[in-house]
Amino acid sequence: xxxxxxxxxxxxxxxxxxxxxxxxxxxxxQALRLGMLEPGDKLPTAREVVEATAINPxxxxxxxxxxxRSGLVEARRGLGTFVRRSLGSAPxxxxxxxxxxxxxxxxxxxxxxxxxxxxxxxxxxxxxFGTASGTASSTASGTTTRKTTSTTTSTTKGNA
Amino acid sequence: xxxxxxxxxxxxxxxxxxxxxxxxxSFRLPEGRISALVxxxxxxxxxxxxxxxxxxxxxxxxxxxxxxxxGEARARVGYLSQxxxxxxxxxVADTLRLGAELNPDRWDAAxxxxxxxxxxxxxxxxxxxxxxxxxxxVALAIALGKRPELMLLDEPMADLDPxxxxxxxxxxxxxxxxxxxxxLMSSHIVAELADACDHLxxxxxxxxxxxxxxxxLIGAHSLVTGRGDLSKHTVVESRASGRGVTALIRRDGPxxxxxxxxxxxxxxxxxxxxxxxxxxxxxxxxxxxxxxRTAVTA
Lengths: 160, 298
Description:
By secondary structure, chain A is mainly alpha-helical. Chain A has helices at 20-33, 46-53, 57-69, 95-109, 114-129, 137-140, 151-157, and strands spanning 73-76, 80-83. In chain A, a hairpin with a 3-residue loop joins strand 1 and strand 2 (80-83).
């Protein structure tokens, strides 16, 4: 069998306060949003993911099940897990991305720091999309929240 | 669910008057789990692993390994000890051949060679010229090359640099993903265990203090901050925090008003239990040995 090119590699951040399986879910969603993954693409197998990240195989399977439940991927018996549909309509080269880049640059020029920008952006998200915006963030704040100090994660967890 | 390992009243005493390394130790490890074996130095971790591998005999009590006596299941059990005894004069290729000769019925030569190759080792290199990480890789290849159903590892990564540790843990996880191997691994590096393991056995004073799925064990505990009465819960550890307390509790019913409740991390759960050796044991039903299951309250 020829070596198939992997379209996504997961990065696990042990100190993010976000559980490992959710990091895989979020990174897959992010790749779908940015058009880095497209329908028909194959996700790496659990074996490939754990070999590269040294995490528990069940964690990968749990993440893939979650993605399957939300209809983003499908498991084909004996073949692997494939992307079923894309997410959103904001590929990496869309005008909206350019506008946001421009906005972020202006925010920085205006002297705002990362936390200020994250708070502003989080506010706008909540105003226009309601509190439970991310598909998986509702699970993140399920029962009791893990401690989190990072400002980037607090925007999606602000509803806890 | 099938059982990989089941201990019932296991006792090991080194010498007649010595304190017991294992003292009435009972638990069950279901098949397919990747379990951490944690505990302070001298808690009995190495003793338990060596008995399971068939290298030591217990003083009394019973240990069933893959449904058989410890020695009988040896062909289906892989064991990697802390000192990884390999022959220093042999080359890597000769060491693999030794693995094949010693495991005539079960040896998967291509698989063992593949694990060695991932570390880009020259098969002609003598074992004595290998680094610690490379040596561990060869030892792991020998242990996994016999395609064990149960893999026992005694602090396998203790002397390795972070990169070698990460790569070898990846190799071990890939094996578990592909073959469903049950893994029992002792270590002091909690962060590493938290990602790799789904099951926990905490040994203390020769017995199991915590046993079960990591999610279940974490879910049974809460880290609470506030003021008020916690007496209906099991308080594992409690510390003054301003005018109130911060406590790690084993919940019995909902926590009352006025407490800020968080889910503990695996590290917080372990440290609290290590600091409080008198806290009562918690063994989840799937992890309790059959003989004890009726007596377990949790």
